[in-house]
Amino acid sequence: MAETIEWRAARLAAARDLTPDIRLIEIETDGAFVPPAPGSHINVAVQIGERADRRSYSVVGPCQDGRYRIAVKRLPESRGGSAYMWSLAPGARLTVSTPGNHFALSPHRPDYLLVAGGIGITPIYSMALALQEAGVPFRVLYGARGRADLALADDLAERIGGRLECFVSDEGRRIGFAAEIERLAPGGELYVCGPIGMLEDAKSAWAASGRPVGGLRFETFGSSGRFATKGFTVRIPRLGREIDVPANASMLDALEAAGVEMISDCRRGECGLCALTILDKDGIVDHRDVFFSDEEKASDAKLCTCVSRVAGGSITVDTADRMAP
Ligand code: FES
C-alpha cells in the first residue's frame, strides 16, 4: 500500500563516517519537524546522472533535536543512490519526505529479539533505544562481516550494555537463529533487518519453532541476493522491446529509463507494486524481495523489478499488469 508522506525542502546539516563505507548524514528540514517512530524511514530525492529518483533510508535514533539521521552505505555495485549521497557536502540542499513506517514496533510484548545484519542496524538501533526507554525485556544481535563493519555498535553498547551481542563472521561467529528464538519468552517478537540470506535463516527458524507467523517482522534493503549482481537482458514481447539492465541499475530503473510505464512505491522489494509476470527465462531468477512468499518465489511466476534480477542470462516478461485499472 502506498504510504502518505509529504515532501519537504531540507539541508544536509552534518556528515561523519561511522565505518570506511557507512556515512551518518544529518538532515534538517524546512518547516515543521515530524518525529519518526522506531522503524521509520524517510525518502530522499536523488539524482542519478540525468535521472531524478528517490531512495529510502531508515531513520537512526529518536532525533530529539529535530534532525533526521540516516546512514548511507557506499556500495561498489550502487545503482547510483549511495554514490550521490556520498557526493554531498554539508550545506547541500535536499528534498526529503516526512517519515513513513513499514517496520513498526508492536507495543506491550513480553519480550523482543532484535536482529541486525550490516547496515540493517539503522532501524534496529532506534527500536533498541525505544525499548530501553520503555524498560521492557529485549536483546539485540548484530551481525557483520568484519569488526570494522559494526557501525553504531560502540554507541549502542554504551546505551544498552549487555543487551547487545555482536557476531563477526570473519571471526567465525554467526547468529544461530534456532537457539536465539528458543530463548525468547512466549509471546515475544522477532524483528530482523538485514540481507536476504539472514532473513531467510530467520524465517526458517521461526517457522520451525512453531511460533505465530505474525511474531516475526522483517525489513531488508534490497541490495543483496544469492548471486553476484551482473547485467542481463529483458524482453517484453507485448511491447516488442529488448532492454539491457546494467549491473549498476535495477530492472525497474532500466525499464523506466527505456520509457516502459511502470508502477512502484517502496523500491526496496516490500510492496509488490512493481512486480511483472515472468513468461520465460534463461538463467536463474535471483528473488531479492520480501513481498513474495517462498512458494511464490520458487514458482518464478513473477518478480519484483525494483530489487530482483536474473543471474547469468535474460528474462522475458509481460507488462499486462501495468495496464490494469
Ligand atoms: S516498488 Fe515496492 S516491491 Fe518494488
Description:
The mean pLDDT is 91. The chain has 3 domains: 7-97, Translation factors (Elongation Factor Tu (Ef-tu), domain 3), CATH 2.40.30.10; 112-219, Rossmann fold, CATH 3.40.50; 232-323, Ubiquitin-like (UB roll) (Roll), CATH 3.10.20. α4 crosses α5. It contains 7 helices and 16 strands. By secondary structure, the chain is of the alpha/beta class. β10 (189-193), α5 (196-209) and β11 form a beta-alpha-beta unit. The strands form 4 sheets. The chain has a 5-stranded parallel β-sheet, sandwiched between helices. A 5-stranded mixed β-sheet has the order 13-12-16-14-15. Strands 5-2-1-6 form a 4-stranded antiparallel β-sheet. The protein has helices at 81-86, 121-134, 153-160, 177-183, 196-209, 251-257, 294-299; strands spanning 7-19, 22-29, 41-48, 51-58, 68-73, 93-97, 112-117, 138-144, 164-168, 189-193, 216-219, 232-236, 241-245, 275-286, 302-304, 309-318. Bound molecules: FE2/S2 (inorganic) cluster. FE2/S2 (inorganic) cluster binds next to loops.
Give structural attributes:
325 residues; alpha/beta; Elongation Factor Tu (Ef-tu), domain 3; Rossmann fold; Ubiquitin-like (UB roll); five-stranded parallel beta sheet; five-stranded mixed beta sheet; 7 helices; binds FE2/S2 (inorganic) cluster; 2Fe-2S_ferredoxin-like_sf; oxidoreductase activity; FNR_nucleotide-bd; MRET; 2 iron, 2 sulfur cluster binding
